[in-house]
Amino acid sequence: QVQFVESGGGLVQPGGSLRLSCAVSGISGSAFRISNMGWYRQAPGNQRELVAIITTSGNINYVDSVKGRFTISRDNVQNTVSLQMNTLKPEDTAIYYCNSASARWTWGQGTQVTVSS
């Protein structure tokens, strides 16, 4: 069973930075390498949204609201996915999750990001 452990969240002031990490277990290295991966977020009262995708070949896409501020990356040796978040805004406040780009596996607990002065 694939499991996700997200970490790196916290409380940060507007304009600050955080780096999120997602450790993926229960999957072989070869299966991870052929999986397009994504970071998602869910703010209170909102639906979960996909904010960044990284494909098996390294192609990357972002939702418009985070373009130029967030950077997704993956490590196919460690089976991890990371999200560098810069110039954070209050509207980035949410619980952040990782999953495949098609969200086909059970969700992890996520990591809370709060942007507030």
Descriptive overview:
By secondary structure, this protein is mainly beta. The protein has one helix and ten strands. It has one helix spanning 29-33; strands spanning 3-7, 10-12, 18-25, 37-42, 49-54, 60-62, 70-75, 80-85, 94-100, 111-115. A six-stranded mixed beta sheet has the order 2-10-9-4-5-6, with no helix packed on it. A hairpin with a 6-residue loop joins strand 4 (37-42) and strand 5. The longest helix is centred in the N-terminal third of the chain and has 5 residues, at 29-33. The radius of gyration is 13 Å and the shape is globular.
CA gyration radius, whole angstroms: 13 Å
Which sequence of SSEs, written as H and E, runs from N to C?
A: EEEHEEEEEEE
Question: Order of strands across the biggest sheet?
Answer: 2-10-9-4-5-6
Strand content: over 45%
Helix content: under 10%
Q: How many DSSP-defined strands?
A: 10
Class computed from helices, strands and strand pairing: mainly beta
Overall mean pLDDT score? Answer: 95
Contiguous helical run count: 1
Shape summary:
globular
Stretches where pLDDT is under 50 for at least 5 consecutive residues are none
Biggest sheet overview: 6 strands, mixed
